[in-house]
Amino acid sequence: MAESDRGPQTGRFPIGIPGADLRTEERPLPPGEPPPWPPNAELKVVGKPTRRVDGLAKVTGRALYTSDVKPPGMLWARRLCSPHAHARITAIDSSAAERHSGFRGVELLDRPIGQAHLRDPKQELHSRFPVLRYVGQPIGAVAAVSPAAAEEIRALVRVEYEVLPFTIDLARAQEASAPIVYPGPVDMGGSAGGGGAASGLGMNGNVRGPSRSARGDVAKGLAEAEVVVEGEFRTQVQTHSALETHGVVAHWKRDGLTVWASTQGTASVQDELAATLGLPKANIRVITEYMGGGFGAKFGAGSYGLLAALLSRKTGAPVRLMLDRAEEHQSAGNRPATTQTLRVGAKRDGTLTAIQLRSVGTAGVATGAGVGSFAERMYACPSFSSEQYDVFVHAGPGTAFRAPGFPPGAFGLEQVMDELAERLGMDPLALRERIDTQVESGALARREQRRIGAEKFGWSRRRPPGSERGPVKRGLGVAQAFWPRHVSLESSCEVRLGRDGKVELRSGVQDIGTGTRTVLAQTVGEELGVPAGEVTIRIGDTLFPRGPNSGGSVTTASITPAARNAAAEVKRQLLELAAPKLRATPAELAAEGGFVYVRSSPARRLPLSRAARLMKAGALTAVAKRTPDYAPPPGAAVVKGYGGVQFVEVAVDTDTGLVRVERVVAVHDCGRPMNPLGVESQVNGGILQGLSYALYEERRLDPHTGRMVNPNLESYKILGPREVPRIEVHLIEDYRGRSSTDAGGIGEPAIVPTAAALANAIYNAIGVRMRELPMTPARVLAALATGGRKAAPR
Amino acid sequence: MKAFGWVDARSVDEAAGEARGGALVKAGGVDLMDRLKEGLDAPARLVNLRSVPGLDRVEEGEGGVAIGPLVTLSALATHPRLRERYPALADAAGHAATPQIRNQATAGGNLLQRPRCWYFRSVEFHCLRKGGELCFAQGGQNPYHAVLDNHICAIVHPSALATALLALGARVALTGPGGVRRELDVAQLFLSPEVDVTREHVLGPGEILTQILVPAPEEGARSAYVKLGERESADWPVAEAAVALTLRSGTCTRASVVLGAAAPTPWRARVAEAMLTGRAVTAESAAAALRAELARATPLAMNGYKVPLLEVAGRRALLAAAGIAG
Question: pTM above the 0.95 mark?
Answer without folding.
Answer: yes
